[in-house]
Predict the structure of Carboxynorspermidine decarboxylase.
Amino acid sequence: MEKHQLFTPYYYVDEALLINNLKILKSVKKRSGAKILLAQKAFSMFSLYPLIAQYLDGTTASSLHEVKLGHDEFGGETHIFSPAYIDREFEEILENCEHMVFNTPTQWSKFRARALAAGIDCGLRINPEYSTQEHDMYDPAAAGSRLGTTLGNFDETLLEGLSGLHFHTLCEQNSDALKETLVIIEEKFGKYLPDMKWLNFGGGHHITRADYDIETLVSEVIRIQNKYNLQVYLEPGEGVVLNTGFLETTVIDFVENSGVMNAILDTSATTHMPDVIEMPYRPFIIGSGEAGEKVYTYRLGGPSCLAGDVIGDYSFDHPLEIGEVLTFTDMAHYSMVKNNTFNGIGLPSIAIKRASGEMELVKSFGYEDFKMRLS
C-alpha cells in the first residue's frame, strides 16, 4: 500500500530506523553480556515482534494480557512484574511466563509457594529511595512510592526462593544516572547480591539516543556481573523504538481568537498522544519551529471537545492550508499503547514503512471498535 492511500491520522513505524536501534542494542548485549528485554508497556505492536526477536532476548510485561502477548507472539524469555497480582489471574500468568518479579514482601509471601511449584524464576523489586529525575509521575523512587521494597521493609527471610532482584528508577535517562543509582543499590542491597542469579536494571535507559553514553553502560554491566557473578537484565521499551515512529495528521480548520491562530487537526493530544498532556511534552513536527521562530505561528489542537486538547504552538515557513499533512516524530512508544476513543474519536490506523520503502497497512479501526468497548 502506498503512503498516500492511507487516511490520516495514522501511525507508522520505519523498519529501517528500528533495525538501526536494534543493532545498537545487539552490540550492547554482545559487549556487556547483558540480556535485553522489550518492555511491552511502551510498545506492543506485535507485527514487529518477529523482527525484534532476532535481536533481543524476550519481553517483560506488567499485566496478564501483556505477558500472554509476549509469550504467544515474541517467544524467548517472558518476564512479568506487577505492583500486585490478582488472585484469579495468577494461574494463567504462571502458564505464560518463566520469570516473575514481586513488588512487596506481602505479595511474595502470598504467592511464593505457587510460583516456585510452577518452576518460575522469582525476583523481588527493590526501591533504593534514590531519585535521579524530576518527573514525579514517572519516578518510582519518589518519597511515598508504592513501587518496590525499601530497605526498611526488607528482611532476610524474604531471600528464600528468590533468584534475583529488580530495580527500576530511570525515565528517559543517560547512563550517568544508572551509575549513580548502582552506588546506592550496592550500599543498601549489595550484601544480598552474591546469592542472586540475576539483577534486573529495569527500564528508562535511552540507549539508542544519539548522546547516550554506551561505554559507561557497558562498563557498569560488566562490573556488576563480574563482581557478583550474576546475569544483568535491561528492559528498555522506549529505547527500543526511540525515533522510529511517526504520526501523520491533516489540517482541517482554522480558528482565530485573541490574536492566536488555532489550526485544528484530525489528530488529538488527549486521544492519540496522551503523554503530550500527561508528561507533558511538545512533540516535534517535521519542518516546524518554535512559536515565532518562523514566519507563521499556529496553536495546534485536536478535534475533541476538551478545551485543553492542545498539542502546542508551532511556526512554519509558509501559511498552513486546509488539507495539508503534518508529520509528528517519535510516536512509536507510549502513543499507540495509551491512545483512547474519548468523544468517539477514531483511533489512527497503524502501518509499517518497510526497509524497501513500501508502506504496509497493519491495522485500521472503525465504528465497531468504539461501540464495542463499553457494551
User: Anything to note?
Assistant: The first strand starts at residue 10 and ends at 14. Residues 47 and 362 are 8 Å apart (CA to CA). The two ends are 34 Å apart (CA to CA). The domain at 3-11+245-331+339-371 is CATH 2.40.37.10 (Lyase, Ornithine Decarboxylase; Chain A, domain 1).
